[in-house]
């Protein structure tokens, strides 16, 4: 009989101490949590309320400080500084782009052989970077044109040169004999000057006593030439081209 | 434990949770928002203070500029151009090189404004331009001297266009010259 009882799959229930202890502990934890929450919630509320008051106080102080800083800002002074700055910048722009047309003419004159004559000359300021120069030129021969083209190409201060509409003219009407016939070559020349090369600098005032570069100074720019006409033309180069 | 005790414990928890949800949580959110705003205000205060300090420094710099320099600057780029005074100056410049002008006139000022559709900024934007058209008969030396005198003028007279037509036989040049004077654009009534 005792064996059958011990082999039973039903757990033996001992209404002793263990379950009772577990329940008591659970109740204790629940009580602790409840009390803790019940006490801490109002305390936290008070803390949060005080912190909020402090935050609002800080915010008010910050707004007041910002208002004071804004009030310190003087609109009139700011406008005055801006206006001065704008005037300075625009003046700087004008000074930076102030070119010397007299320098341009001097460069052009120095690079033009005396055998070549300008019939007309037009200088236009197209934009801030470039200056366009257009001229109608006249010379006695095509050799003169070739030579002149070499001179202009050798001049580094002229950014670009183009000869156009080259026409060989025989002024037969003016000649009495056939031997008096003297050909003329007429052409249009277009030059581009880089504004940087002909910028006005107050230093040019120092050298303004001599308005035109001497012919010897030009000779250095055309040393690559070789024929006799070039040598004679260079020696004749002066400011009376126009 | 009695049922009453259990209910009172649960009630305490519920009350605490209610306080947490109904007051503490929204208040914390409020505090966070207030602190964000305060932080934003502090940043703005720093920026405004920085601007004020910069402005003070610039004003000190401005005050340090001599009246003569200020006058020269205002002369170089005036608020407006007195056309008659400029014409008188041009006439004086040419007289000083021994040339009497054949003609001198001016056009109404123009102001270049940027095209809103274009990305290209006009470098002359904000400047009013006054063109003075001059015709004269002179020789090459006089022309160069006149151009030199124009270049060293107290205010800019930019040579915008120059046409030279030499005479066939003599050394005389027929010259047509366009000089441009500038002023600040804000005070000028535009032609366009």
Would you summarize the structure shown here?
The complex is a heterodimer of chains A (242) and B (192). With 242 residues, chain A is α+β, with helices and mostly antiparallel strands.
Describe the protein's architecture and organization:
Chain A is an alpha+beta fold and 242 residues long. Chain A has a domain at 101-236. Chain A has helices spanning 2-6, 18-72, 75-96, 101-110, 142-154, 215-219, 228-236, and strands at 117-125, 130-139, 158-169, 184-194. In chain A, a hairpin with a 4-residue loop joins strand 1 and strand 2. Chain A starts with a helix and ends in a 6-residue tail after the last helix. Chain B is rod-shaped. The N and C termini of chain B lie far apart (97 Å). Chain B is of the alpha+beta class and 192 residues long. The chains are: A alpha+beta (242), B alpha+beta (192). At the A-B interface, helix 2, helix 3, helix 4 and strand 1 of A face helix 1, helix 2, helix 4, strand 4 and strand 5 of B.
Question: Helicity range of the residues of chain B?
Answer: 40-55%
Low-confidence stretches of chain B: 188-192
Average pLDDT over all residues of chain A = 75
* Fraction of helical residues of chain A: 40-55%
CATH homologous superfamily grouping of the largest domain in chain B: Ribosomal protein S6/Translation elongation factor EF1B
By DSSP (H or I, 4+ residues per run), the number of helices of chain B equals 4
